[in-house]
Amino acid sequence: MATPPASAPARHEIAAIARQDWGRLVASLIRLVGDFQLAEDCLQDALESALRHWTRDGIPANPPGWLLQTARRKAIDRIRRSRNFERKSEEYARLIELDHDDQANHSMPEIPDERLALIFTCCHPALDPKSRIALTLRTLGGLTTSEIARSFLDRETAMAQRLVRAQRKIREAAIPFAVPEPSQWSDRLQSVLGVLYLIFSEGYAASEGDDRLRHDLCNEAIRLATILDRLKPDEPEVEGLLALMLLHNSRKAARIGRDGVPVALEDQQRDLWDQQAIINGIALVSRALRKGSPGPYQLQAAISAIHAEAPSHDETGWQEIVLLYDQLYSHQPNPVVLLNRAVALSYSSGAGAALASLEEIDDNLQDYQPYHAARADFLARAGRSHEALAAYDKAIGLSQNRHDRLFLENRKRKLQAG
After folding, report:
1. Counting beta carbons within 10 angstroms of the beta carbon of residue 59, is it exposed (0 to 12), middle (13 to 18) or buried (19 or more)?
2. Pairwise CA distance, residues 255 & 252, whole Å
């Protein structure tokens, strides 16, 4: 049976909440029920209930509060029916108490912001670093398993198994849901920073769907990094990460054309860049680097600052960027850093030099779309048009985002037109 037209506003509202408030809602539920999978399942049940009730009765005044209350009641039902009810009796009693309080007040519950606590829970040292980041991206960032797998260049099935194991370990080890004391941060901070950067990166260049930019993810990552900077002042890598996000985000108004297709850096209108964000970002990275302990985020922010300060694409300090990528590679020896270095090298030393440098990483990035897109550009600039067209076809075939495909198809057409 077809869904009645009246459900359209409800569907729109539910989609918006799932996109913008998922992390806040699931963090609150995990805090209450102490179980990642139970929290996600109950929130999903609540979204399905919302579609039925909101279609029939209209959208409530506080949609997120309605969902939290409904998810809480779903959790009560699930815990009551579970075989290990006795073990979960404390959680059950707490949920019943909270539900009664809400009903007595005749109001929807306030939703506390538990997201930073969730990040630190997921980044507990009992989990391996890769699982820490993947689990946080899934529960807090709202990223799909396939999006996370692509970030790590992994298979989706392998990533799904990793996420299940991480959730089980947190539950069985009774890892507390709390922001630890600053003295306990050393084992978790790098993973927390990695999580925030990957959330930002997915928002800045969405790997799936029709939207190239997801401002909700970018803003959320910047917000959490700002909180982290206040909790841990004068930590150079925290300052470096926040600077990097601000500098990248400063270009958001120029990165997407009116047709929704990305605009290459060399073609962006620099007068659209957010100058205040650039000033703030440069001040942060300068302060961090003066501490004399440069790390990966400080170095990436320094690279972004060179782009931000350049009057034009041609006047960018490309050789300095190449040297900074060399330093970055000593901290993060991975092929993506070498690919980004090759892009800078193509402008400082020519497309031929960049193509030669790609030979070092050819076997590692065959399924990575940006590798083939960059290689196509280098080949085109080197006058090897036939090979460039084949590389564009490969990159287009690997693109999961519609606007990325359009961008590459436009470049391919320009090359074909001579």
Report:
1. middle
2. 5
Domain total of the chain: 2
140 domain-assigned: no
Overall residue count recorded for the chain in this entry: 418
Lowest mean pLDDT among 85-89, 108-112, 238-242, 308-312: 108-112
* Comparison of pLDDT for 2 and 147, the residue scoring more: 147
**Residue 373 domain boundaries:** 328-418
Last residue of some domain: 105, 133, 149?
Answer: 105
State the helix-helix crossing angle for 156-172 and 115-122, rounded to 10 degrees.
100
Location of structure tokens 């350049």: 310
Report CA 133 to chain centroid distance, whole Å. 10
Confidence of residue 1 (pLDDT cuts 50, 70, 90): very low
| Helix pair 189-204, 215-231: axis angle to 10 deg | 160
pLDDT digits (tens, 9 = 90+) for 158-208: 999 999 999 888 888 888 777 777 777 777 888 889 888 888 887 787 555
**112 DSSP assignment:** -
Query: Distance of alpha carbon 182 from its chain centroid, rounded?
Result: 25
Residue 106's pLDDT is 42
Say what the pLDDT of residue 90 is. Answer: 60
Domain assignment present for residue 182? The answer is no
Task: From 408, 356, 414, 410, select the one nearest 382 (Cα to Cα).
Answer: 356
Domain CATH code at residue 43 = 1.10.1740
Extract long-range pairs of 304-309: CB within 8 Å, 24+ residues apart: 304/243, 304/244, 304/247, 304/248, 305/243, 305/247, 305/281, 307/247, 307/265, 308/247, 308/250, 308/273, 308/278, 308/281, 308/282, 309/278, 309/282
SS3 401: strand
3-state secondary structure of 232: coil
143: left (phi over 0), alpha (psi -120 to 50) or beta: beta
In a domain, 334, yes or no: yes
| Mean pLDDT to the nearest integer, 106-129 | 70
The CATH number given to whatever domain includes residue 377 is 1.25.40.10
Which residue, of 59, 88, 105, is where some domain finishes? 105
Residue 332 domain flag = yes
